[in-house]
Amino acid sequence: MEVESGAAAASKDTNRLLRENNATPSSSTSPASARRKKICLITVGVVLAIILIVVILSLTVLKAKDPKITPNSIALDRLSSALDLPRLRVDLNVTIRIDLNLKNPNVVGMKYKNTTALIYYRDELVGEVPIPQGKIGAHDTKRMNVTLLVLADRLVSNPNTYNDVVVARSIGFTTVTRISGKVKILNMFSISVSATSTCVTVIDIANQAVSSSACKTKM
């Protein structure tokens, strides 16, 4: 009986030691695991907060805005005409110069692409001039001079030219200048922006000068 009691006591001691050994790692790793979990939650929270701030800024203060084109003046650089009575037509050479400002309203710089200024006579394309690519700083304004040469052969082929030049003694043209580019918000988001300026110009043939002009800008 005494032997059995001693064996039972030894067995109980062994079981107690095993339980203590098994409990020790759990109690020692639990605080570390909790700290890691807390750090992960804080990191995720900070990242989400940064993303939210970036989104809010992108939609408000840093929101990309289209540039603005403002024509300052439209002048007639050259006008010459030759009347061909037998064929009831007129050879007309016209050069129009447009002085305009390109304003970038964004808080970051803007890069604009190669583009082309166009000139129309009664909805028919009669001239164009390339505008090279460039850059414009934040809240900056860039001055441009665009010289448009009307192609005489395209005017000759239009039956309305003779009546406008010889009878009405005035001829109207529509010029279209479009600027397209991109702004980079926070050096991460590249956003396209553009603006178009359309001007209707009437030339007095007798006085060889611009008699009227009206422009509008579409963004």
From TrEMBL:
This is Late embryogenesis abundant protein LEA-2 subgroup domain-containing protein. SUPFAM superfamilies: LEA14-like. The keyword Nucleus does not apply. It comes from Kalanchoe fedtschenkoi (Lavender scallops). Signal peptide: none annotated. The chain crosses the membrane at residues 39-62. Keywords: Membrane, Transmembrane, Transmembrane helix. It comes from the Eukaryota. InterPro entries: Lea14-like_2, LEA_2. Residues 1-31 are annotated as: Disordered. Residues 100-193 form the Late embryogenesis abundant protein LEA-2 subgroup domain.
